[in-house]
Design brief:
6-stranded mixed beta sheet, alpha+beta, single chain
């Protein structure tokens, strides 16, 4: 049933994406023909909404794809740092504590996208709280046969009622304008595809911490680098 639902939703979002692309084309034509300042400002706003929606729908369609990983041996810090570069901005106070030489068999694209989703989720949770310094802590350690990644933010937190539902497809407590509840289910599928586990600890109004465990390759030095 879930597979059939995904196929139907995938078709809906493809249609939605085609509609948005058509709107984008018309807006480009209008920009060249409409000269009044007030009208140009409104066109620019419509263009911004369309572009944001296109990006969101494209990401949603990516999450509907079956997660087929092609793992290779790599240092997992490469994936974490790439995800950080994608989404972390100057208003976020970032603390990194990465153990050196943590090698894992993983799919670089999917795992990086999963980390990107988690970081973006943390950023949105923090920005929903006003008058607070935004702190994001990312730790990478090893424990026995596991690489352990902990992602802590001091955002709005998750209520106990919602905690059990956050990995369910289409569940979201955010506005539906650009959030469709597919980011965390995708993260869950990616971690499971890597034979890993993901846990969450949160207090509403205070913090959220995601903990990810992925099987690691033993060996290599274990010195720590703090930033």
């Amino acid at each position: 049933n879930t597979r059939n639902l995904n196929q139907n939703l995938k078709g809906v979002f493809h249609s939605f994406k085609n509609t948005l692309f058509s709107i984008k084309v018309v807006l480009e034509q209008l920009k060249n023909e409409y000269q009044a300042d007030e009208g140009a400002e409104k066109i620019q706003r419509l263009e911004q909404i369309t572009n944001n929606s296109l990006k969101s729908v494209t990401r949603i369609l990516d999450t509907f794809q079956e997660v087929r990983i092609q793992p290779v041996k790599r240092n997992i810090t490469e994936s974490l740092n790439t995800a950080i570069e994608k989404v972390i901005t100057d208003d976020i106070k970032l603390h990194k504590n990465f153990e050196d030489n943590v090698f894992v068999y993983f799919d670089f694209y999917h795992l990086t996208e999963a980390f990107t989703n988690l970081f973006q989720n943390s950023i949105e949770a923090m920005r929903s709280v006003k008058n607070r310094e935004y702190v994001l802590k990312i730790d990478l350690t090893t424990e026995h046969e596991w690489a352990v990644i902990r992602i802590y933010d001091n955002g709005c937190g998750i209520s106990k009622i919602h905690m059990k539902k956050i990995f369910e497809p289409l569940f979201s407590t955010k506005s539906r304008h650009n959030n469709w509840g597919m980011g965390l289910p995708y993260v869950y599928r990616v971690i499971k595809a890597h034979l890993g586990f993901i846990n969450v600890d949160s207090t509403e109004g205070e913090y959220t911490c995601f903990e990810i465990l992925i099987p690691r390759l033993k060996g290599g030095q274990k010195s720590e680098r703090n930033e």
